[in-house]
Structure to design on (387 residues):
């Protein structure tokens, strides 16, 4: 179907932060499959684990125990706020399940009317009708018929508007700590703390969408850690599988009060292949120096990008984001900068608010930072010369 405006590029193989075309051209990948290839391409440990698992077992269904899935859940619980994990196949599926869990929580508590969810403008939670309705973006909802009922959209970062939206039927708040598709808009840490406080005050569940900003992207395993809070529910995907399709819902024991056998399920979610790869990703990310390395590299990259923004104000307005989830707010059309960077051998991805997203593999080092910055500088220079 004609649903993608694809670039005229096809890649034959990848290695680390690089992608290679069949004719030998090399690109530095600062899109990473839109924050998916967190450990780069063809990571030796992930390849080895996947090959070994592929030779043993692919699928048995959730009618039976899946030991690697139990192990992955235990490790996610040990390194997060959560007590329970449900595995699925994608971020949208994780959000759908998280919303269902939140509504079931209040139903089981004898308050079935508390089914409304407060969400934020500029959000992106997936492409299903429910997740699109949660985000409320008219662009994506056009022509899709009635929106799913039960969502109240408020401005991102505005606590006054959020408090005004709370009513007796409200059951949860859904928010991305950093809006990705929405333009790399990072929530103020005080805002995240205020969300936790208001949820406690009104008996709401705090549901975080860390599909893009989670799994080490900000320099901590999860973005909520920077605010020193604990959500009730969290959706993960993207980097959790390092390129293999996987999604997960993490939740507290209390939030799972409405979940019981038969209420929710999945055919492919939690399959042995995905679980093996998810554990391999954690093997790498839980190494003592992995996250400190991400933080150091992110500081280097941001400092150099801010210098470029100061030198080329006719091209770049500001640098946004946190960790290795950064955005270049453009003065020129972001689509033109993405195309120019591609000509310079650097792959990026656009976002709302005329932003170019930089989402490199978390394994990059100072050499790759310099290579990317030089490519951005060359691209910016073309507009400076034209002026």
């Amino acid at each position: 179907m004609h649903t993608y405006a694809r670039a005229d590029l096809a890649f034959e193989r990848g290695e680390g932060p690089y992608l290679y075309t069949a004719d030998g051209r090399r690109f530095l990948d600062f899109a990473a499959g839109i924050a998916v290839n967190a450990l780069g391409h063809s990571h030796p440990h992930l390849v080895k684990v996947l090959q070994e698992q592929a030779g043993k077992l692919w699928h048995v269904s959730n009618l039976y125990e899946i030991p690697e899935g139990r192990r992955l859940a235990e490790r996610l619980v040990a390194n997060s706020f959560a007590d329970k994990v449900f595995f699925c196949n994608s971020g949208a599926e994780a959000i759908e399940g998280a919303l269902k869990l939140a509504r079931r929580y209040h139903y089981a508590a004898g308050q079935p009317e508390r089914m409304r969810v407060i969400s934020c403008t500029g959000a992106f939670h997936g492409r299903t009708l429910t997740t699109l309705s949660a985000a409320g973006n008219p662009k994506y909802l056009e022509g899709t018929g009635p929106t799913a009922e039960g969502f109240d959209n408020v401005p991102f970062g505005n606590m006054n508007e959020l408090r005004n939206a709370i009513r007796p039927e409200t059951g949860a708040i859904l928010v991305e700590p950093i809006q990705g598709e929405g333009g790399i808009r990072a929530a103020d840490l005080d805002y995240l703390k205020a969300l936790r406080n208001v949820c406690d005050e009104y008996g709401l569940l705090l549901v975080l969408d860390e599909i893009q900003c989670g799994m080490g992207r900000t320099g901590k395993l999860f973005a909520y850690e920077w605010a020193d809070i604990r959500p009730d529910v969290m959706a993960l995907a993207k980097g959790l599988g390092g390129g293999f399709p996987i999604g997960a819902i993490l939740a507290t024991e209390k939030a799972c009060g409405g979940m019981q056998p038969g209420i929710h399920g999945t055919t492919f979610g939690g399959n042995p292949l995905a679980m093996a790869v998810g554990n391999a990703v954690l093997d790498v990310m839980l190494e003592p120096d992995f996250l400190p390395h991400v933080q150091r590299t992110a500081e280097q990259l941001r400092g150099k990008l801010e210098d470029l923004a100061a030198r080329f104000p006719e091209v770049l307005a500001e640098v946004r984001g946190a960790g290795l989830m950064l955005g270049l707010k453009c003065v020129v059309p972001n689509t033109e900068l993405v195309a120019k960077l591609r000509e310079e051998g650097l792959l990026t991805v656009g976002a709302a608010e005329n932003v170019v997203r930089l989402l490199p593999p978390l394994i990059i080092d100072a050499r790759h930072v310099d290579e990317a910055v030089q490519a951005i500088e060359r691209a910016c220079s073309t507009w400076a010369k034209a002026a």
In short: The first helix runs from residue 32 to 35. The longest strand covers residues 316-322. Residues 95 and 235 are 6 Å apart (CA to CA). The mean pLDDT is 96.
